[in-house]
Amino acid sequence: MKSVRVLLAVAGNSFYESVRHRFFLLFAVFAFTAIYASVLAGVMAVDQEARVLADFGLALMELTALAYALFTASSVLLREAETKTIYLVFSRPVPRWAYLGGKLAGALLTAALMLVVMGGMHLALLALRGFGAPACYGWAVLGSFLKLSVITSAAFFVSLFSTSAVSTMVISGVLWTAGHFVSEARFLADKAHGVSAAALKGAMLLIPNLQLFNARDAAGAACALPPAAFAAAAAWTLGACLAALWLLSRKEF
Amino acid sequence: MPRLLLPAALLAWLAGGLAASGAYVPHYPPPYEIRVPAAGAAGDMFSLALGARRLFADLWFVRLMQYYGTQEDIGEEEEECPEHPGQHHHHHGLNGEGSYPEFLPRARHILELDPHFATAGLYGAGALAFNLDRTAEAQELLNFGIKQSPREWKYPLLLAAIGYSKAKEPMKVAEAIRPFLSDPDCPVMLKQLAAFLNKRAGNLAAAAAIYADIAATSKDTAYVANARRELAKLSSRVPAK
Amino acid sequence: MSAHAVSFSAVEKTYKRPGFLGASYTTAVKDLSFEIPAGEITGLLGLNGAGKTTIMKLLTGLIFPSAGKVKVFGHAPTEGAAKARVGFLPELPYFPPHLKPAEALAYYGRLSGLAGPALAQAVRAAMDRTGLEPHAGKRVSEFSKGMLQRLGLAQALLHDPDLLVLDEPVSGLDPLAIHDIRGLLAGLNAEGRAVFLSSHSISEVEKLCSRVLIMVKGRLAAVVKRAQWEAAPGGLETIFVEAVR
To answer: How confident is the model at residue B85 (pLDDT cuts 50, 70, 90)?
Structure first.
């Protein structure tokens, strides 16, 4: 119970520190970009303005939240080690799993809040232009959040062995990109033979299939996320967290 | 306990992979279907990498409309433009005349990225068949759409309408595309075609209703202006109720 | 209960630094054995790179020994039972500049397992004890170096530890701040807490400590009691200079 309180304390602190700093700047950037896009979209898309606004907004929301999540996950542990804040944490009876769990929870809570607030701004913009909420909007935002939870936990893991925040962000970004190519990899695996087929199929198991959560790109087809998507997100997030904990338990400060 | 962490992590990660492989249903055609018609390969890479095929399909749709909306210089052997003496070009007016050789590849590319973007498919096929008079290309586009999105009922319906158009049966064309008209995503060009065909067949009330819908719902100023003009003409011919 | 707050037994710590052509190894402390008695103030002296901070980190569980054993109140330093009884002040502690002292202390208090009224009481007591009460309304960004050290001490006191581990507690402070910190530490020791502090300032160590460990290149060169340096001509400084030469 004490450890859970510690986890909540770390999560609350992590969330508060995030909200305080880059939050509003990112929101302001999002709001400005969305408004600018709406002007352009209205001119160029003509009768497809609703679709273009919806797609642009959802993609921008996801990328904004991703950028923030990767930046936080890549730098928070490094920064606390550099400023020796981490000495004040781990000289206390703070279990490393509670610290890591709290940091991840704080990052995901911030990402969730960003998605909710940006979603509200997006829907308000659509309403201003005379459009209702697009089909599958809730699933799209939820799918984005599940993607973020997988990539953020993976970024925490990478940050514990990489040499800089930049390299962590690059590796996590590559994983994000690779996660959207799994269906293409599957196609190639079906066409290939022998060792290359086995290697591709192995890679498909190891790279998280982020297309599974891509409801915003599937609207038009069935967009509801299946229960297995939630299970997969939980398993990948847990796997990355356990791997990060393995590294953190051996790490010296 | 720390010794078990790494094996447990790998197990959890693989469990995620297995859960995903069982549940994942691809919504999009495989990459070999993508052929880049103009400079844009980098954009297509981003569309795949960011999981944003719908967005990039939207951008290609905008590019198609911009392409179709720019005037073509057609050489001095053609007639002078009545609005610009001394110049030889088409205006992309309401009837969309012109050659626009890249129209089919660009329209097809939209469906290669997002085969569920039915409005783009209908717009492209409708423009090819009824404006540019290239029914074979229109049919090719619709057949591609049917192949990628077999449940999309609008493609076979428009295919039928094109068939009737080739057979010079305008009323059957109008009948074939009538189910589209109530769909909020119906391309305005098809609505205009339906209004025109109804007007030609003497169904003035039906034509007026469609023109009124265009005027009320479309954001394309050219179509709206034309619809208002036609409504003004029709109002003198349709008896008041 | 052990009479020793800390015991080091044949401890060695070697740092591994990965490199392009292979790892390099640096032995920071070797064959280190000593005890820190409970309830006393023990000083740690040494030149830069002698291993002082390594010792501090070993006994706070921030790093792990390559060989030997470290015990804190009979427990391994990584165990919660040990950490709950240790308050650590690292050199030049960092606090988020936008926070007020009570907010920063509340966070670390929660990490120490405090909650509710007990947390509020602990924060008040720590601020009172370290003289931060008059500055409660200021943000950390407005704090002087001396006030930051006080805040660092306050966070170390929150959970009422039996052992205070202080790495260079008076580094960079003016004489008045040093005097205040010294008085504070003496008061804490008078309450029965053990204090283990490292310093470059021989005079400070002389004034506060009852015994001093002198580190030279990772080895314990000497253990000197107050009676010894008071009897020696030139005092602790002469003993120290002889040990490091």
So the answer is: low
Phi, psi of C198, rounded to the nearest 5 degrees: -105, 150
Testing the interface with C: which of A10, A14, A91 to mutate, by most C Cβ within 10 A? A91
Measured distance between the N- and C-terminal CA atoms of chain B, rounded to whole angstroms: 86
A101-117 per-position pLDDT tens digit: 999 999 999 999 999 99
Chains in touch with A (3+ beta-carbon pairs under 8 Å) read B, C
Contact between B218 and A242 using a beta-carbon 8 Å cutoff: no
Cβ–Cβ of B27/A218 closer than 8 Å? Answer: yes
For residues B48-70, give the mean pLDDT. Answer: 87
pLDDT tier at B41 (50, 70, 90 boundaries)?
A: low
**Mutate which: B4, B10, B11, B21, vs A, most A CBs within 10 A:** B21
State the pLDDT confidence band at C51, using cuts at 50, 70 and 90.
very high
Give the mean pLDDT of A170-176: 94
pLDDT for B189 beyond 60: yes
Chains that touch B (3 or more CB pairs under 8 A): A
The rounded distance, in Å, linking the Cα atoms of C124 and C106 is 10
Give the count of Cβ contacts less than 8 A between chain A and C: 67
Q: What percent of chain A has pLDDT over 70?
A: 97
Instruction: Please report residues of A whose CB lies closer than 8 A to that of C83.
Output: 91-94
Domains of chain B: 41-69+95-235 (1.25.40)
